[in-house]
Design brief:
The protein is an alpha+beta fold. It has three domains: 1-58, no CATH class; 66-145; 156-292, Reverse transcriptase/Diguanylate cyclase domain (Alpha-Beta Plaits, 2-Layer Sandwich). It is 47% helix and 13% strand. It contains eight helices and six strands. A four-stranded antiparallel β-sheet has the order 4-5-3-6, with helices on both faces. A hairpin with a 7-residue loop joins strand 1 (31-32) and strand 2 (40-41). The protein is elongated. The relative contact order is 0.10.
Amino acid sequence: DFLRRDGQRASDEFTNKIVIIGSTASALFDTKPTPMEKIHPGVEILATAIGNIKNGDWITQPKNPWLFTALALGLIWVTALAFLTGVKRKAIDMVFAGSQVGLMAFTFASLNLTTYYLDLTAPITAGLIYFSLARVYAYAEATIMEKYVWINVEEGVDGWQYTVVVVVQPESLEEISEERFLTLLKRGLYGKKVGFTIEAFSRKPAGIEKAFQNMFLIYWVENHVETKPWEVEKSGEQTVYLVRDVARSICENDRIGCKLGWCQGPLTYGDEKLRLEAWQQLVVKAMGNLKDQPLEITS
C-alpha cells in the first residue's frame, strides 16, 4: 500500500497503536520455547507481553505456599480418616477419584477463565501417592491375615495348633455398614491380643448370602505346634471374652441385637487335607452355637 499511488488503507491506521515488526520463520532464529509450543515466534511473545501489560490480564499465581500445603494435608487426612472409620472401599474410591478430577478441572478453569493460575499439581500428587500406599497396605494386610491360618510355622512337624473360632452375627446392618462393623471389630481386638484374624462373609449368590448374612468370622490360631494329645484349655474362654466385650460395645452403641457362637479345638498341622477338615468342623460348630449364645445388649 505504501508503494501505490492511491493508498487503499487509512492513513491513521496505526495511530496510537504499538507496531511490532519481526519474523515468524524459524530459520531466522527469532524463536523461543514456551509452555504452549517448543518453537514460538519471538514477535508473538513480545506482542503477548505488551498486551498483558496494557490490559492488565497477565497470569498471576498465589504467593502463599501454605494454601497448597493445607490442601495436600487435607486430602491426606480425609483419606486416612475414611480408611480408619471403615467407610466402604468402593465409596472411598469413587469420592477420591471425583476429588482428583475436580481439582484438575478447577486448575484448568482457573487458567482458561481467569487471570489466576492455581497450580494444584502438588496436592493432587500428594493425595494420589498416599491413597495408593494406603490401598496397597490395606490389600496386603487383608491378604496376609486371611492366609495366616494356612502358614507353615514349623517345617517337618506333625501335630496340632490350638484354635479358637468365634462367629458374631448382628441382627441387622442397616444402622451400621458391614465395612464399618468389621473395622470396629479389628480396631477393638487388635489392641487387646496379637494374632486375631477377622473376616466378613463376602457377597455370594442369593442362597449362600441368605444363609450367612451379617456374619463375621473371628479366629485365633496359636503359633506353636503341639504334639501331645489334645486337651481342653481355659484360654478359649478368655479369648472369647475379649470378642464378646468388643462386639457388645459396638452393638450397644448402635442399639442392635447380636448373637455370638464359638468353639475351640485342635487344628491339624502337617496334613493339609486333615487340616481343612478340622477347620471346617470348627467353623460349622461355632455357627451352630450361635442360637445358644446371644449377647446381652443393654439399651
